[in-house]
Each structure stands twice: as structure tokens, then as C-alpha cells.
Write a structure and sequence with these properties.
Uncharacterised_TM-17; 86% helix; membrane; cell projection; mainly alpha; TMM80 protein
């Protein structure tokens, strides 16, 4: 009976670990990016109308991250493709916002490049694992 149980367990452990690590990293990412935006607004001449969109993107990304990670966890653990698919869709939105902060925010420092590149790499790896998990659940 144990063998049958194991062979039918399709949820991905690497995906679960990566979602967990991503959640922790995102908290660090958010605080570091927020601190840098505040720092840049003090050090550089930051036009007020440019500060708002940069902050809005960061907060929108944080709001997206909660359902993105939750649906990823839930979909993987319950072996349901719908929540994982939704999580994958939200990841696309997060990637767009991340690319904005990497390329188009008012001032991009080397630390911004590093933080965003790491986040994009995590998103890419996570997305690949989600696609594989969805394929396993569907088959």
C-alpha cells in the first residue's frame, strides 16, 4: 500500500522549497527596495511625480506576491492545476513589475540590478517547476 501511495504523490518538493525560499527572499527584497527608494529620494533629486509610481509598483508587487505564493503552495500540496495555473499567471504580472524596477524606475543602482536579477531567476525557476507540476497533475 505504501508503494502505491508514494507513486501517486505528484506534488513537487523542489517547488515547495523554492516557494518557501521565495517568500522569505521577497520580504528581504521588499524591505531592501523600499529602503533604497527612500535613500534615493533623499540623496538624488527625485521628482515627486516619479517617486509615486516607483513606490506604487513595489507595493502592487507585494500585494500580488501574497496570492501568488499562497496559490502556489495550495496548488502544489493539493495537486490541483487550477491554483498553480493562477499562481503562474500572477508570476507573469510579478515579472513585469520586477522588470520595471530593474530597467525603468527613476534611479537604478547596482543593488537594484542584483536584487531584481535574483528575483527574476527565482521566478523563472519556479515557473518551470510549476509547469512541470501542472503537467504531472494533468496527466
Amino acid at each position: 500500500a505504501m508503494k502505491i501511495l508514494n507513486s501517486s504523490q505528484l506534488s513537487s518538493l523542489p517547488l515547495q522549497i523554492l516557494l518557501y525560499v521565495n517568500g522569505i527572499y521577497y520580504v528581504f527584497y521588499f524591505l531592501a527596495t523600499l529602503a533604497m527608494i527612500i535613500y534615493k529620494s533623499q540623496v538624488f533629486s527625485y521628482p515627486d511625480d516619479f517617486l509615486a509610481p516607483d513606490l506604487a509598483v513595489l507595493f502592487l508587487m507585494a500585494i500580488l506576491e501574497v496570492p501568488r505564493l499562497y496559490l502556489g503552495f495550495k496548488g502544489n500540496l493539493t495537486e490541483a492545476e487550477a491554483p498553480l495555473g493562477l499562481s503562474l499567471g500572477l508570476t507573469v504580472g510579478s515579472v513585469v513589475l520586477c522588470v520595471y524596477l530593474l530597467l525603468w524606475q527613476t534611479y537604478v543602482l547596482w543593488a537594484d540590478v542584483l536584487l531584481n536579477a535574483l528575483l527574476l531567476a527565482a521566478y523563472a525557476l519556479e515557473s518551470g517547476l510549476k509547469v512541470m507540476a501542472i503537467a504531472a497533475f494533468v496527466s
